[in-house]
Amino acid sequence: MKKIELRPYNLQDPLEAQEIVNIAHEYYQKSPWPPTLEKVMKGGVVYFRAFYEGKQIGISGYSLKTPTLAETVKTTVFKEFRGQKLGALLSQAIEDECKRIGIKKVISTVYYFNHMMVQIKLKQGYTIEGYHPDHEAPGYHEYSLGKILK
């Protein structure tokens, strides 16, 4: 199986930053997360377009917490590409990117109802490190998962 290719967004470009905002608002409509253009352009997160066989299939990113700790953020596979095991490939691709830049541990928070991504992370060697009721807002519970990179 081919690998996912990650291409970084240029957050200084308002059109590229707006694309992230649009995707967030489409896929996280009920979440309190969807960001503003200003927040995305402010930085703090490195976002990537994810390509598989030449087609953009989703987005992902990471936020540095310390020089050796990163949190993966809002890994999203577009609806038309779901059910093809691309979520696992995208999760692995962002983990590989973190490893490439010298990260020693990666963490991720996953909504409690996203059973597929929790399963993917557990199969990839992550452990559940915590459960956060009402984490982002009332009713938005999340699991914290972590993995030491070798």
Describe, in plain words, how this protein is organized in 3D.
The protein has 150 residues and is of the alpha+beta class. It has a single domain, classed as Gcn5-related N-acetyltransferase (GNAT) (Aminopeptidase, 3-Layer(aba) Sandwich), CATH 3.40.630. It is built from four helices and seven strands, in the order βααβββαβαββ. It has helices at residues 14-27, 37-42, 86-100, 115-123; strands spanning 5-8, 46-52, 55-66, 69-77, 105-111, 127-132, 142-148. The protein has a seven-stranded mixed β-sheet, with helices on both faces. The longest helix has 15 residues, at 86-100. The two termini are 23 Å apart.
In short:
The protein has helices spanning about 15-25, 35-40, 85-100, 115-125; strands at about 5-10, 45-50, 55-65, 70-75, 105-110, 125-130, 140-150. It is of the alpha+beta class.
